[in-house]
Task: inverse folding
């Protein structure tokens, strides 16, 4: 699984480099997009609900990890309730 992910990463990275060198207008558009994205991130961090959104995302991640571990333990150890 990790090997497949690494191969996909190498292919994606090489394609990114190829398009950057072969088509400079794509690289320019990508840089403009990243600049706009950075401006939006700064505006988003200034918003009052940013901390709430960040905390809630960590809570959701914790719930997903807990439920995933619970399901795996129940399936692997064949626990019945």
Result:
């Amino acid at each position: 699984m990790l090997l497949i992910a690494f191969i996909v990463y190498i292919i994606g990275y090489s394609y990114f480099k190829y398009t950057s060198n072969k088509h400079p207008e794509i690289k320019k558009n990508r840089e403009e997009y990243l600049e706009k994205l950075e401006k939006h991130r700064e505006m988003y961090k200034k918003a009052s609900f940013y901390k709430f959104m960040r905390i809630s995302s960590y809570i959701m991640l914790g719930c997903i990890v807990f439920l995933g571990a619970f399901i795996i333990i129940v399936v692997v150890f064949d626990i019945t309730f």
DSSP finds three helices and no strands in the chain. Helices lie at 2-22, 24-46, 50-77.
